[in-house]
Write a structure and sequence with these properties.
By secondary structure, the protein is an alpha/beta fold. The chain contains seven helices and six strands, in the order E-H-H-E-H-E-H-E-H-H-E-E-H. Strands 3-4-2-1-5-6 form a six-stranded parallel beta sheet, with helices on both faces. Helix 4 links the parallel strand 3 and strand 4. Helix 1 crosses helix 2 and helix 5 crosses helix 6.
């Protein structure tokens, strides 16, 4: 869209489903359902605006602390979302990726993730990166341990580990660093999300709850982003 500076990678913390539901006297599960609809809208907007990569914080490693009924509801909605939208996602040229640990995830969820990532692997119009069972500290530890295991198995000494090696072993390997991180619902923290990848991200916070985040809200974030001076430690 004319006049907008388009980030290579937008990361979204989709916060406020429960608060939106409470404000509307609805169960939290309905908030998550409306939040899933907002994900569909975000992908459509990202395609229209030609944003290359969108990462979405769907479920964190800390979210296991929530009531079992809510966790079960979230995973059920994810499976339903893929069932409902996968054909359209694929037809629109969207590549689905999963960033996060596969451990503890229900087999039905893993099956659907594998189906979605496999079916859309060759698509290039947009990468929709679902961060599910994701925690940035866990990701970095996993990357370092993977490097150590690989070097040990090949008989190489472990004198030092480089940034390049860590990048190659992150869940997000191959994706550009985050340019813009958006968090909805008023909280102003990044909650263990893409810490490595967001070293120079611009942080945008909005009071809008996630179920109400639409194209106009995304445009507001992009307009704000376009006014930022991105110096990466240098001087302009």
């Amino acid at each position: 869209m004319s006049g907008l500076i388009i980030p290579a990678h937008i990361a979204v913390i989709m916060d406020g489903n429960g608060r939106w539901a409470q404000n509307h006297n609805l169960p939290r599960s309905e908030g998550h359902r409306r939040g899933a609809d907002a994900i569909d809208n975000l992908m459509e907007s990202a395609l229209e605006l030609e944003i290359p990569v969108v990462s979405m914080y769907a479920f964190s490693t800390e979210n296991w602390k929530r009531p079992v009924s809510e966790v079960t509801s979230i995973f059920k909605l994810l499976v339903e979302f893929i069932d409902r939208h996968l054909d359209k996602i694929n037809a629109n040229g969207i590549q689905v990726r999963h960033s996060g640990s596969r451990s503890k995830l229900p087999s039905a969820v893993l099956k659907k993730l594998d189906e979605a990532t496999g079916k859309t692997a060759k698509n290039r119009k947009l990468v929709a990166n679902f961060c599910l069972n994701y925690g940035s500290r866990e990701e970095i530890v996993h990357a370092v341990n993977s490097i150590i295991l690989e070097k040990t198995a090949s008989g190489k000494s472990i004198k030092k580990i480089s940034e390049k090696e860590i990048n190659k072993n992150l869940y997000t390997k191959g994706l550009p660093d985050v340019d813009l991180m958006i968090r909805t619902s008023g909280e102003q923290r990044i909650s263990n999300y893409l810490l490595w990848q967001s070293a120079y991200a611009e942080l945008y916070f909005t009071e809008t709850h996630w179920p109400e985040f639409n194209k106009n809200e995304l445009l507001k974030a992009l307009e704000w982003y376009g006014k930022r001076q991105r110096r990466f430690g240098g001087i302009k």
